Amino acid sequence: MSIPFFLTVAYAGAGFHGWQVQSTLRSGQGVLWEALRRLDPEAPLPQGTGRTDAGVHARAQGVLIHVTRVWEPYRLLAALNAHLPHDIRVMEARPAAPGFFPRQHAVAKRYVYRLGFGPAADPLQAAFRWHIYQAMPLNLNAMALAIKPLLGTHDFSSFRCVECVAKTPIRSLHGIGLVDVEGGIDLVFEGSSFLMHQVRIMAGTLVDVGRGRRSPDSLAGLLQAKDRRLAGPTAPPHGLCLEKVWYEAKWGLGEISPFGART
Description:
Blueprint: E1 3-11, H1 28-39, E2 47-48, E3 57-67, H2 73-82, E4 88-95, H3 102-105, E5 106-116, E6 130-131, H4 140-147, E7 152-155, E8 170-181, E9 184-191, H5 198-210, H6 219-225, E10 240-247
Parallel strand pairs: 3-10, 5-6
Antiparallel strand pairs: 1-3, 1-4, 2-3, 5-9, 5-10, 7-8, 8-9
C-alpha cells in the first residue's frame, strides 16, 4: 500500500547545494529522504515542485511523498521534523489525491528577491538579503519603469543561464512588484514557471537599472536580443526565496491561482 502525502517544506538555502538530490553534496531532497526513510525504509524519493539553486531558500517547496502506513498528518509532520536538521522543516502535511504530481500540476509560483540598503549589512538579515553598497540609493522609479516590458509571455533567453536545459525559453511573467520593507526592498516575481537563474538574472539587471548602469527603457530590446551576455549580473543566491506555489484547483491544495491555468 502506498499512501500519498503533500508536504510544504521550508529551508534555509545556505547549507544546501540546491533542492535536487545529488550523490555527494547535501540537498534538500536528499536530507528529507533520509528523514523519511527513518520512518519508512521503503519510501521512494520525495518529489518537489521546483529545483531551487544552491544557496536559494524556500518557504513553500511543495513535496509529494509516499508512505506505507496510515499517518495522522500532524504526527507525520512531527515525526519528520524530529529527524530533520535545524535548517529544513516540514511546515504542513496533508493527504494528497492519487495522480497528483507537484511539478506537473503547479500553475504559478512566487519568488521574492530581497535587497538590503544602508552603509552596512544588517547581520540579522545578511543571510537572506543581497546588500547593495553605494553612495547613492538605487533609483526605484527607474526600476519600476523597467519592469513593464518583462510582463507577459516572452522568450526569456536573455535571462536564461547557459546551463539551462528547459525545452523552451518561453515563459509567462504575471507580475513584478517592488515592495518597501525595513532596511531595503523586496522584488516580488510571479509567473507560470521560471528558467534556470531567470529570477536572479532579472534581479541583477533591475539593480543595474537602479544604479544607473542601464536605462529603464533598454529591457524591451534586451528581451528581443535573446542574448544572455547583454543582461545584467546573476544576483547572488542568498537573496532569493521560493515563497508560494499555486496548484491546479482540482487538487484542493491551498488557494486557487489568481492567474488562471499555466500557459
